[in-house]
Design goal:
Elements (H helix, E strand, L loop, with lengths): L2 H18 L5 E12 L9 E17 L4 E7 L5 E8 L13 H13 L1 H4 L2 E8 L9 H16 L18 H16 L6 H8 L4 E6 L4 E6 L7 E11 L2 H19 L13 H6 L6 H22 L7 H13 L6 H12 L4 E5 L4 E9 L3 H14 L6 E4 L7 E2 L2
Parallel strand pairs: 3-5
Antiparallel strand pairs: 1-2, 1-12, 2-5, 2-6, 3-4, 6-7, 8-10, 8-11, 9-10
The structure holds 2-deoxy-2-fluoro-alpha-D-galactopyranose.
Length: 405
Amino acid sequence: MTPAATKVVRSAADGFRALLGGPPAGVWSAPGRVNLIGEHTDYNDGFVLPFALPHRIAVAAAPRTDGRLGVTTIGDDGQPQRAEPVAIESLAPGSVSGWAAYPSGVAWVLRETMPDAVAPGADLVITGNVPAGAGLSSSHALQCAVALALLGLAGVDVPETGGTQCDDRPDRVTVARWVQRSENDFVGAPTGLLDQTASLCCAPRHALFLDVRSFAMRQVPFDAAQADLEVLVIDTRAHHSLGDSAYGERRAGCERAAKLLSVASLREIDASALDSALDALPADLVPLVRHVVTENERVQQTVALLDAGDYRDIGPALTASHASLRDDYRVSAPELDVAVEAALDAGALGARMTGGGFGGSAIALVPLDRHDTVSEAVTSAFSRHRFGAPRLFTAAPSAGAHRDQ
Ligand code: GAF
């Protein structure tokens, strides 16, 4: 773990002591993610290729005896924000709103699936350094860390590399599905499985190649620094509220297209059959389907290049992914387009928006000796366009969720 991540874990434990007057029973943490490629494919049963950020959310936790969930978050300013403790028994979709819905939703799913695990209740103190609202999955990091913490308090340690079939511990894929259910049904966001799986299953120096249809997954070596490259994350700090409804509209459009094409999901459309599929669709669905089918191809090309150690050659697929998200799927934003163009003009080998879009972050594959040039080019392009200053950092693939203390 990086010194910053170690500090996050320590702050959660120290915060717990200061706020609750005693030590936590344990501390669990989970990372945010960037998706290297494979965007808006997860809810179409397609391929994704995320890696975990070094940035993490940590949860210090201890059991209670009154069946309530007490949650406090400590913000960047060090100030605690406390949600009124709520009876886990009373949790139901819609019963908690705002930020507290995320940890509460996880407790709700566990109550539905493993009631004994959460029956005593718990106190949670949460802090972290995953940039919020940056499309880097801070909310999933929070939910995954809460899930491991609540299970851990009940003595259920979720094995790091998938569960064994001969014990009754949930494996990480099961936990990812629970977190998705919490987000879909309790929080009310119709998201796929990319982010939870990334947070729970990624490994250092690797990207996670996940086939969402079969849930087969493989760690693909991706140590960019070894090839004198870096993944530069450009947090545009823009968030366009349109994104919340547009995500659901895109998803519904894909489902409508799959129905019209008589397939279970758009994953069933092979690139070789794309043209005839598009011919059979109304005009509004054509670009959506074209994006999903070509994006699945780009993920597979990228994985093949990484497997061959040809890291520099993945650039064009990243850039093509951005063009497809901008022009066909229409989920980009002016800030993301400016970030991508400025990075490419300054020598990035490829660049794209990452995550759901409508703001948030872009990534650029940058030769190490171009780091300063690309960073300065992006920053000055933002200033020329009168956007707020972006936040830039280099992200190395890091560890998935685990128990820290
Ligand atoms: C968001 C969602 F949460 C993911 O499930 C995924 O669909 C992504 O947008 C787009 O690839 O992060």
